[in-house]
Amino acid sequence: MKRIVFILTLFLFFINPAFSAGVVKKEITVPSVDGFAIKAYFEYPKVKGQREYPTVVLLHSLGYSSQWWETLPKELLDSGFAVLRIDLRGHGKSVYNSKLVSVSWKSMTNSAYSKYPDDVVKVIEYIKSNNTKIAFFNNWAIVGADIGASTAILTADKVEYKPLTLVLLSPVVKTRGLYVPVKLANLDHTDIFSISGTDDVSGKNAQEYLKKFAQAEFVTYTSEARSTGMLMLKNDESLAKIITQWMKEYL
Predict the structure, then answer these.
(1) What is the C-alpha separation between 99 and 87, in angstroms, rounded?
(2) Element (H or E) spanning 91, and its range?
(3) Of 75, 88, 145, 218, whose CA is between 20 and 30 Å from 171?
(4) Per-residue model confidence (pLDDT) at position 9
């Protein structure tokens, strides 16, 4: 379905309703296939009588963590979504391997980065299995920034229950060995909303290249932020509302 109307509105006057009396928060640790401890944070609004929540997975930028999403998690929660933030391997609290040795993203090889999609799938499967009456993965989406955007595409390709949409902040064609165009071509029912900053030449070039492989709708948007990745949310206060409104069109 076309979402052009979404692009033509500014959303500056969009006001989220007071959706719940509180938020349920869970911090979880999920072992990866090779024993790396992946940390994640699962939150959902506490709404009386509601059993299932459409779910948005957040995958951060290279060198950051799931704590850097600014106001986006709150915007999503206030709009009735469950939010799953994941610290990618080597970032945040996801730094301990099977031998309990701390490993930073700075020293990781491409073979370690290649495990990102499998790590995310493991966390999602854990949430599905242990929160069956809360997280609703028949109605879900992923937001990813730079390497998180690449991981979002590769994760969507791996799971049987495809996300309805992906939001990509400063996407890249290939980073740390993660090459995404071919896998993007497999997502024939997943619409893409790709966002780049005003001065983000690399992100804009990647968008134009990836758009050639998209089988579903691929909408681009230029933020006023003069930054890239998840930092755009810090420098463009309207962006969290815009992303949330996009999710409300789908979930």
Answers:
(1) 19
(2) none
(3) 75
(4) 45
pLDDT at residue 21, rounded to an integer? 63
Report the domain count for the chain. 1
User: Where are the alpha helices (H) located in the chain, listed in sequence order?
Assistant: 4-8, 72-78, 110-113, 116-130, 147-158, 181-184, 201-211, 231-235, 239-250
* For helices 147-158 and 116-130, angle between their N-to-C axes, nearest 10 degrees: 60
- Amino acid identity of residue 99, one-letter, is K
pLDDT of res. 110? 97
- Joined together, the tokens standing for residue 137 give 């993965």
| Through-space distance between the first and last CA atoms of the chain, rounded to whole angstroms | 13
**Confidence at 135, pLDDT banded by 50, 70, 90:** confident
Max distance between CA atoms of the chain, in angstroms, equals 52
> Can you give the CATH number for the domain in which 106 is found?
3.40.50.1820
Spatial contact of 135 and 56, defined as CB atoms under 8 Å apart: no
Identify the bridge partners of residue 94 per DSSP, sorted by sequence position.
Answer: 91
- In the structure encoding, which two tokens stand for residue 204, read together? 């804009």
> Domain of 217?
4-250
Phi, psi angle pair for 242, to nearest 5°: -65, -45
Taking alpha carbons only, the member of 239, 118, 87, 66 closest to residue 167 is: 239
Q: For residue range 56-115, what is the model confidence (pLDDT) as tens digits?
A: 999 999 999 999 999 999 999 999 999 999 999 999 999 999 999 999 999 999 999 999
